[in-house]
Amino acid sequence: MASFRILTHPEHGTRAVKIGWSWPAFFFGLFWALYKRMWLLAASLFGFIVLSSVFIPATMEGQLISNVLFLGLNLTISMKGNQWYASLLETQGFTQQTQVEARNPGDALAVHANSQKASAADIRDHEQRGTHEQDLPVDHRDEQENKPDRNDGRGDDDNGDGGAGGKGGGNTSGTFIG
Q1: Which helix (H) or strand (E) holds 6?
Q2: pTM of this prediction?
Q3: What is the mean pLDDT of residues 128-150?
């Protein structure tokens, strides 16, 4: 299983970008960059190919140097290519939503879509439960039956101010009794 970034755009939809190594970028660097519409990377790779063919001699040592340079370049693109692609998408207005574990980008998008449906259903259920709870009549009889009898002169008023007959006030005539 691989990790994928899920990026969304209001007009261009949702994309899944793998986190980490990219085998297609390793084997098809220039063509991978063109396919992903990474024009600057593609132009840089093309320029590197042209310059290396012009400046590196066509000898056995030159071929070795060229192969080592291309291997290093392909390793770099393979390690950083997906990160560069995600950054490019973010500059185009995509926003990262989440990260998911999946086998391929299609499965990653399906996992994300299912989680969105599940969370939307959870929100809808919560809203419906909240509406039903608010619509139910409140029955205070249970509260009155479970309240202990008080014989301390405070009555049933348990808001802490002493009630009508206890110390601390509670006189309803408006006169302070000290």
Answers
A1: strand 2-9
A2: 0.62
A3: 53
